[in-house]
Amino acid sequence: MTILATEELSRSFPRVTALDRLTVTVGPGVTGLVGANGAGKSTLIKILLGLLPPSGGGARVLGMDVTAQGAEIRRVVGYMPEHDCLPPDLSATEFTVHMARMSGLPRTAARERAADVLRHVGLYEERYRPMGGYSTGMKQRVKLAQALVHDPRVVFLDEPTNGLDPQGRDEMLALIRRIGTEFGISVLVTSHLLGELERICDHVIVIDSGRLLRSSAIGEFTQATQTVTVEVEDGRDLLAARLTELGETVTAEGRALLLRVRAPETYDVLRDAVCDLDLCLIRVEQGRQRIEDVFKEPADV
Amino acid sequence: MSDIPASPPGGPHGPVPPVPHGGPQGPAGPVGVIHDIGYRHYDGPRLGRGSATVALAVHTLRGVFGLGRPARSKIIPFALFGIMMLPAVVSIAVMAMVQQRAMEYTPYATIMQPVLAIFLASQSPYAVAPDLRFRVLPLYLSRPVGLWDYVGAKLAAMTVAMFTLLAVPLTVLYIGELLVDMPGSPQTSEYLAAMAGAVGLAVLLASLGVAIASFTPRRGLGVASVIALYLLASGVSTVVAAVMESVNDYTAAGWAWLINPFFLVDAAIPVGLFGTEPAAPGAYPTGIGVAAAIVLMLALIALSVIALIARYRKAASR
Q: Taking every annotated instance into account, which residue ranges of this chain make up the domain ABC transporter (chain A) (predicted)?
């Protein structure tokens, strides 16, 4: 089953080309759309909602054409924008009920759905207070709730983790995963961090300057990211030598070392090496694959 | 992790702690569990664009009067509504006590025009500015409603608000007149002429107010723009009319009154169509003047709607 498909989709603005002959297919489940700022993610979502006409090519959402059937698409699709979109003097309940009514739900159904959805996104007593006093995390939850309130078949989430602290980020990602699996709603989620989408997506699409860099199932991505960045105060070369001696692959990168993780034991080797050499360890960080790296080494599986 | 004693054979849950005699018996389960019933899909009816547009209009109308909003949002609209009611209440009291009319129907709108103008200026930005400023507009447009539905709902809400503000005191005054049982027949035709004028005035003022307010996402600026335009129109109208009267050119003075939107509607509907007495200090132009007033009123409404659509086309493409 295909949730959405684009065919040679292009969109140019007076000064920039936002999308350049993009052809992708998205199936059910959670799909990540990764790209740097200005890569064309938001433009793609606007075209898929039928709000922006493509300058070339076409796209279909749930089998409906975006240029001819925009209104029908918007009836069964939810959209969470990247920017703030909450009037500060309304409470989350009132706002979500209103948005449900705007999607065509009758009054009582709108009330029930709003209460249900706000509970699912994790807003409880605070939902009766005006939204002006909400934290960023709570605002993101309301934005998500209004996208889900009319029980759409697909939701487009534009940068849902923007501005969240690490814990809020984890909770939001877990929630998105639940929407895709437990709720049975297909999700298209954008981010500029491939690393965070890896954890929740079934499929990842990487675009850059409006062009498709890569579209593949998540398994193919995770293999490429098995490196850790290690930084020590002094004696970087000592550590590099020691690790190489112990059979690990390391490369120097600035003040830090990139260590390839063969197996979980690599972490033990690293720990022991640092202890034995009596070095001051500053950080050990999971390698974040950058979008350009995906471009440089395409799926070598 | 090896210091945990191995569980005895046959007991995967480990040794059961001995329950003291006389102690609480049976499993003490947690009290008041919240059951997560999971996500439920919605398969009820989904209404069309029409009902969504009505919902938006009602939501906006409630916002204009501050209903469902914090208490401070209610102060201005209800205070102004109270002031609009005062002449009607006082007039009923005067009618009841000395059997004399203190307030006529058709001049009600023009006498109370500063109050109506302040209401328009303070509340029409409320109808449109927050959606632009807090960027709620993209959420509306990602739903089945289109630009025309959005603009239509906002105009309808503001029109109903302005009409309510004027029609309620007029109606109270009329009911009062019937109850007090004034000598002579009740002024039903004047009441109806004033109500027709109220409809025209509500549409014209709402269109102008919302169109001007939609050009800025800042409420304060919207309030200032609308009130400035009203002061300019009424000021220019009064000054030009006075100058023309001083040189004894009463036809030109009549045209000058039409610069003020309140007198324009008065000249077009109650005076032009129903033949009541003009509410302006002087007479309006007659004959072609009536047609001109009606055309001018409709043109201003059309211009405002065109400006609104153009404004939102631009706002939506961002």
A: 4-234
Q: Per residue in A271-295, pLDDT tens?
A: 888 898 888 888 887 765 554 555 5
- Rounded to 5 degrees, φ, ψ at A127 are -70, -10
Domain containing residue A236: 226-296
Distance from CA of A116 to the nearest CA of B (A): 8
Q: How many CA atoms lie within 13 A of B13 on its CB side?
A: 2
ipTM tops 0.90: no
Q: How many domains does chain A have?
A: 2
Q: Within this chain, do residues A146 and A248 fall inside the same structural domain, yes or no?
A: no
Contacts of B72 in chain A (CB under 8 A): none
Residue A45 with chain B: CB contacts under 8 Å: none
Which pTM was predicted? 0.81
The closest alpha carbon to B215, from B304, B276, B146, belongs to B304
B68 and A130: CB-CB below 8 Å?
no
Contact B165, B61 (CB under 8 A): no
Do A71 and A183 share a domain, yes or no?
A: yes
* A162-181: pLDDT as tens digits: 889 989 999 999 999 999 99
What is the secondary structure of A164-202 as a DSSP string?
A: --HHHHHHHHHHHHHHHHTS--EEEEEES-HHHHHTT-S
